[in-house]
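Working notes for the structural subgroup meeting. M.R. asked for a predicted model of this chain before we commit to crystallization trials. I am recording the input and output together here so anyone reviewing the notebook later can reproduce the run.

Input as submitted:
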Amino acid sequence: MTEPTASIEDTPARPRPAPSLTQRVLRNVLVPLALTWMVGAVIALVIANYFSEQAFDRGMLDDAYALSANVQAGERGIELLLTPREVATVLFDQVDKVYFAVQRLDGTLISGQAGLQAPLPVDGSRYRFSDVEYEGSVLRAVVLEHDAEPDLSMPYRVVVAQTTLSRTALVRQLLGYALAPQILLLVLLAVWLWYGIRSDLRPLAELQRALDRRDVRDLSPVAVAQTSRELQRLGNAVNSLFDRLGQSLQAQREFVGNVAHELRTPLAGIRALAEYGLAQHDAKVWREQLERVSERQSRASHLIDQLLALALAEEARTGLDRVPVRLDVLAEQTVLRHLMRADARGVDLGARGLDDAVVVYANEALVEGILDNLIDNALRYGGRTITVELAGQTLSVIDDGPGIPIEAQRDLMQRWAQGPAGEKLGQGSGLGLSIVSRYAELLGAELRLDAAEPTGLRVSVAFGEVP
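Returned structure, recorded in token form:
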């Protein structure tokens, strides 16, 4: 049994490659320009042909007048006084063959070629030009009636016709002279545009090659040639994208490194406590070890929350949505959320200045993060009283603890930095104020650490007005 073979119709067609930018620009420039030039050349040719026809017709009319001047009344009636040689001299043309006829008004021939007829003048005109056919050839003819103030006893008309070889040759010459320079100029312009466009697009090709050769881990800015505003904008957009990707990857690397570094110790401690408890047979030891495991787990969970918050702050650098936020409502909700923990620690947690509505332009999650970390720090290292205060656009957390010396405040804004109280208690991870500082920076708010009265620490965050 033979297997079915795929038909040609089933084979997917390869997509046609897109034209290059150079080709598209040349096509969009040269095609309209060529059409415009051709239309202009045709118009110029029609005008030139019209005036050349006028010149040829005028010359033929002069020949008719010359013949008419030699027609007189003689003994045998109206006759042409010129001999055939003289007529040939008067109507001489090097290219075209000229025919003539002198006729009475009834059409009888006085002199010239018999059967040469042409449309007569109308509307009182003395002459009329027309195209006629004679002896199988198309001729240009003119019919001239007798001069003004005619002698009615000898009325007559003169017909002069000639071939159109000179006229056709002149039209061809005009066509060649009109089109040849236009085509030559168009070719020269195409060559000039080709080299000019390729030269202007060369920096774009160099940028493409630089990106093609770049390693996936290399997010350093690319060199941008300052040849055009569009290319500069493209290069700046690429470098801006690299910068945002670098910040995002740096935040991810820092988060992974922080988690790997900081969770190793508490997880190892939890495991050691669990193994020690399992090796014992006393229920009292088990309970003691379980309480210590629970405490270590709580610290590890808190550390994870802070690491995630710090990663959120780094990620928010690339895109942060700001909306109007009610500070009074947010502060009240945060205080209520921490009341149970404060009561368990015997800390008096309260708030003041929340009676009036205060709206700022910020990010609600980041403001909550600021308040949560400040209250958490105050609960860990502060005294017996914590107050959340709202004064205008400034949100403050005040405690009556030992405070922070001025010379140590800048250091505590860095990651993993802890003051003497934190090191003594063995609590926290040194990330709280770092997170607060980073959130305030992202929100465009001012963070201040001041001494509280009579003792303690006041941490204030001043927000801007709603635009």
